[in-house]
Structures are given as C-alpha cells and as structure tokens.
Amino acid sequence: MRTRVLKRVEQISLLLEEASSQHLNFCHIFQDKSSPAIIAEIKFASPSQGAIYPGSLTPVQLAENYCTHGARALSVLTEPYFFRGDIQYIRQIRSAFPLCPILLKDFILHPLQIKQAQVFGANAVLLIVAFLTPALLQELYTYAVSLNLTPLVEVHDAEELSLALELKPKIIGINNRNLRSLAVALQTSYQLIQLIPDTVFAVCESGISTCREIKAMITAGFDGLLIGSKLMQSPQPGEVLSALLKEYPDAL
User: Fold this and answer.
1) 2-250 belongs to which CATH class?
2) CB 3.0–4.6 Å: which of 38, 43, 98, 245 could bond 21 by disulfide?
3) Residue ranges of the Indole-3-glycerol phosphate synthase domain (predicted)?
4) What's the pTM?
C-alpha cells in the first residue's frame, strides 16, 4: 500500500507543478535588463503571407527550440483559420515546459475563451482593443485577471491606447501592423511609446526583423518585443533568435 500511496503522491506533485505554472507572473519576463525580453511566436501562417513555416518541427519542438535559444516567453497562436493554430498547442507545450511563460493569441471575444486559456495552461492572453467595445474590453480584462491571467492589451493608434490605459493594465502591446491594409509601419511604435507611462510594460509587436530594430525599440522605451514572422520563416527559428541576441550588444 505504501508504494501505491507514494506513487499517487508523486502524481499529485506533478499535477500541482503544472497547476502552479499557470499562476506564473508573466511580467517577470521583463525584469532582466541585460538582454532584450523576446516573446517568440509560434505561428504557422498569417493573413498577410499565408503559410510561413518551411520546417517540420512540432509546436513542442518549436517551444524547445525557442527556449534553448534565449526566448523569455512564448506567444502561441491558437486561431485556426488565418494562423493555422490550435488550442491544443497550449496544453502540449505546457505539459512539456511547466515553467515557461505562455501568451495565448487569438481573436478573443468571449469569456469562455479566456477560461479555456487558463484551463489549458496559458499565463497571459491577448486582448485586441480594435475588436472590442469598451464594455466588453473591461469585462474580458477583469475576468482574465480574476483567473490569474495577465492580459496583454493590444493597440494600434492613440485612440485605442487611451481606452487601454483606462484599464490600468500591466502590459500594453503596440502592433505596428495596420489591421485594414496589413501594412507594417514601425513609426507606430515610436509615436505611441511616448504616451505609455513608465509604470506599464510596453511590448513592440510586428515588423521587427533586425538586431538594429530591436535595439532601437529598447532604446525608445520598450520593455520587450514580440517577434513571429522573422523567426518562423526559418526551419530552425530558435537559431535565428539566437543570432539576433548575439548581435545585440554590438548593434548601432
């Protein structure tokens, strides 16, 4: 009997470790200032480019590839139609990497999507201001926080940023991609970062492809960068990330 009980205790320990990982403070990824805080993205397609990943790594293998090459956190697309994502990717990666901070990215419009994110093991969720009424944005934000999830509130212009700041969020993401034209303009980040208080972590999203751009964004005041397409266009995305981080100290 003792052996059986001890085996059950071992299983309980594993379950508790997995459960506790869901309460990781996503904001901790910004604490170390010795190198850029990169949120490396796992996505197999995009609305602007279609299929983008030329390799054969699974989501779990991609997560390992990123984490062993300097990623502070993972952004995982779960939206199936435009990005070829799957909610199961979150569960698979969480099971393999209990202590890895994971941001779930999807078009979140309903509280059940946030509950699902929490159950499957995400630590943070994306809330896109452009797709939500102020009332729904507030509802989803409050609900996410109640589940110990960190909302990353995404904006594209000054008006959306004003709405986002009313939430008193911990993290704001500035997306450089125009949702209508899908064109990318890094100037969006340079303009909006000036309006974000120092008490809010700022993440630059979309269009970052060089070490020089990474350094320019950090210098401008960003706490982290979310990079996807640049990395996922390589069969070994982690190696591209590693090269960018290696060049960072010498970038002009």
Assistant:
1) alpha beta
2) 98
3) 19-238
4) 0.90
